[in-house]
């Protein structure tokens, strides 16, 4: 029987974001990187965390984190060497929290201890101007990582 | 109280790229209408500046933070402290832009 995959925590979903490491990356046949693999790169390489610390943040064991991270590195290398795009998609992940976007001013926010937003914390737009972001990670410019 | 990460101690100051690396935090208390600029005490630390800045703000009683980017270490502290995180759109360039949207008319 297959072992159930433990859900890994990530902070913000990318949802099918395409990454071009190289300008001449060929479209089509992208390297598929899961959300948790990408998160491991952020934590270990970008934020320079120890594997143990990163594993705690993602809610997995240290060896599991190392495996996720090694797969991610292999995929990065593939994309780099073979001039392929990376598509960040899938993986058993949870964001831990719900995020909302105000379509009036573009702010994205969470709601600790509350379920439904009554208004935008920046521009005070009403609830009908606020949408729940579930798997909408199209915010590669500004994000919580 | 709301904290906004900024690069300077003035209303026209550009917003800082990353919350933990903000030179200053503009802290505003809606209840009293009072505000002040707090210097980020941990800015010089290469590592964990975000985490330390976040702890400092949580201890100062901040309940909402606003920035373009919030790192995962800072986010962890804010989550524990039940602090709301607002990721600002880059339509906002300066502190003044945000305050205007918040309809705050503060005098310097
Ligand atoms: Zn808004």
Write structural notes for this entry.
- The complex is a heterodimer of chains A (145) and B (108).
- With 145 residues, chain A is of the alpha/beta class.
- Helices cover 28% and strands 21% of the residues of chain A.
- Chain A contains three helices and eight strands, in the order βββαααβββββ.
- In chain A, the strands form three sheets. A three-stranded mixed sheet of chain A has the order 2-4-3.
- In chain A, helix 1 (35-46) runs antiparallel to helix 2, helix 1 (35-46) crosses helix 3 (62-81) and helix 2 (51-58) packs across helix 3 (62-81).
- Chain B has 108 residues and is α/β, with parallel strands linked by helices.
- Chain B has one domain (2-102): Nucleotidyltransferase, domain 5 (2-Layer Sandwich).
- Helix content of chain B is 25%, strand content 23%.
- Chain B contains three helices and five strands, in the order βββαβαβα.
- Chain B has a five-stranded mixed sheet with strand order 3-2-1-4-5, with helices on one face.
- In chain B, helix 2 links the parallel strand 4 and strand 5 (84-87).
- In chain B, helix 1 packs parallel to helix 2.
- The model of chain B has no long low-confidence stretch (mean pLDDT 88).
- At the A-B interface, strand 7 of A face helix 2 and strand 5 of B.
- Strand 7 (108-110) of chain A pairs antiparallel with strand 5 (84-87) of chain B.
- Zinc ion binds at residues 102, 104-105, 107, 120, 122-123, 125 of chain A.
- The site of zinc ion has 8 residues of chain A, from loops.
What would the keywords be for this entry?
heterodimer; A: 145 residues; alpha/beta; Rubrerythrin, domain 2; 2 domains; three-stranded antiparallel beta sheet; flat; B: 108 residues; Nucleotidyltransferase, domain 5; five-stranded mixed beta sheet; 3 helices; 5 strands; 25% helix; globular; binds zinc ion
Topology summary:
The complex is a heterodimer of chains A (145) and B (108).
Chain A: E1 8-9, E2 17-19, E3 26-33, H1 35-46, H2 51-58, H3 62-81, E4 84-88, E5 93-94, E6 99-102, E7 108-110, E8 130-133
Parallel strand pairs in A: 1-5, 3-4
Antiparallel strand pairs in A: 2-4, 6-7, 6-8
Helix pairs in contact in A: 1-2, 1-3, 2-3
Chain B: E1 2-6, E2 24-29, E3 34-39, H1 49-59, E4 64-67, H2 72-80, E5 84-87, H3 95-101
Parallel strand pairs in B: 1-4, 4-5
Antiparallel strand pairs in B: 1-2, 2-3
Zinc ion binds next to loops of chain A.
């Amino acid at each position: 029987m297959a072992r159930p995959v433990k859900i890994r925590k990530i902070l913000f979903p990318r949802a099918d974001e395409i990454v071009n490491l190289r300008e001449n990356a060929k479209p089509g046949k992208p390297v598929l990187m899961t959300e948790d693999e990408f998160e491991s790169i952020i934590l270990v390489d970008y934020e320079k965390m120890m594997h143990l610390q990163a594993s705690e943040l993602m809610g997995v064991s240290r060896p599991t984190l190392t495996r996720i991270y090694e797969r991610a590195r292999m995929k990065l290398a593939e994309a780099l060497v073979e001039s392929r795009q990376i598509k960040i998609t899938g993986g058993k992940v949870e964001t831990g929290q719900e995020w909302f976007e105000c379509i009036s001013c573009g702010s994205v926010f969470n709601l600790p201890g509350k379920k439904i937003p009554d208004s935008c914390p920046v521009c005070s737009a009403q609830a009908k101007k606020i949408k729940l972001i579930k798997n909408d990670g199209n915010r590669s410019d500004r994000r919580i990582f | 109280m709301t904290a906004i990460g900024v690069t300077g101690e003035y209303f026209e100051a550009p917003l800082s790229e990353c919350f933990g690396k903000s030179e200053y935090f503009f802290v505003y208390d809606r209840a009293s209408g009072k505000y002040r600029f707090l210097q980020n005490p941990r800015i010089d630390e290469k590592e964990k500046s975000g985490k330390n800045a976040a702890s400092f703000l949580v201890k100062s009683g901040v309940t909402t933070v606003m920035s373009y980017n919030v790192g995962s270490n800072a986010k962890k502290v804010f989550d524990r402290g039940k602090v709301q995180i607002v990721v600002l759109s880059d339509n906002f360039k300066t502190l003044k832009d945000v305050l205007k949207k918040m309809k705050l008319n503060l005098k310097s």
